[in-house]
Design a protein that fits this description.
Length: 153
């Protein structure tokens, strides 16, 4: 039963990810041939890039139930956090974190499996939930700044 629920959630996440594509048929075609598909940032989310290990630690600090999708690349030792598209300057002072501009292309595998060392550290679940940049900033701050009160409410 748990396996069926996990598969349904993964499929819902994949359907959501496809709904964010400019050309869903092209994305599905890339995935069908086990290639990464291109998703320009901006319309549905922004992307913040951070070292993989620091991202794993941040997930632990924030809690998996409070974050959105996080894509990882084990060959490049990097993770990409999906953030709200209206992101402004909330993360400007966080070192070792690069916020990518609108139009930057994130190459994604399907939600259901990895491609060339790239996989969903935290899978999209279909809800459209994205990571709150304030929580991410606190979790990645030097010395691990305390999470804001909104993290607990």
């Amino acid at each position: 039963m748990a396996t069926q629920t996990a598969h349904r959630m993964s499929q819902a996440g994949q359907d959501w990810l496809l709904s964010c594509a400019l050309h869903p048929a092209d994305v599905q075609g890339a995935w069908d041939t086990e290639e990464l598909a291109e998703f320009p940032t901006g319309p549905h989310w922004r992307v913040a890039e951070a070292p993989l290990l620091r991202s794993v630690e941040a997930i632990s600090r924030i809690g998996a139930d409070r974050i959105g999708p996080v894509l990882a690349d084990v060959h490049r030792d990097v993770a990409w956090w999906l953030l709200p598209p209206d992101l402004t300057d909330e993360l400007d002072d966080i070192h070792r974190l690069t916020v990518r501009p609108d139009g930057w292309v994130l190459k994604c595998p399907p939600v259901l499996y990895s491609v060339t060392g790239r996989w969903w550290l935290e899978r999209p679940d279909g809800s459209g939930r994205l990571t709150n940049p304030v929580l991410l900033g606190a979790a990645l701050s030097p010395g691990g700044a305390p999470l804001p009160l909104e993290a607990f409410g």
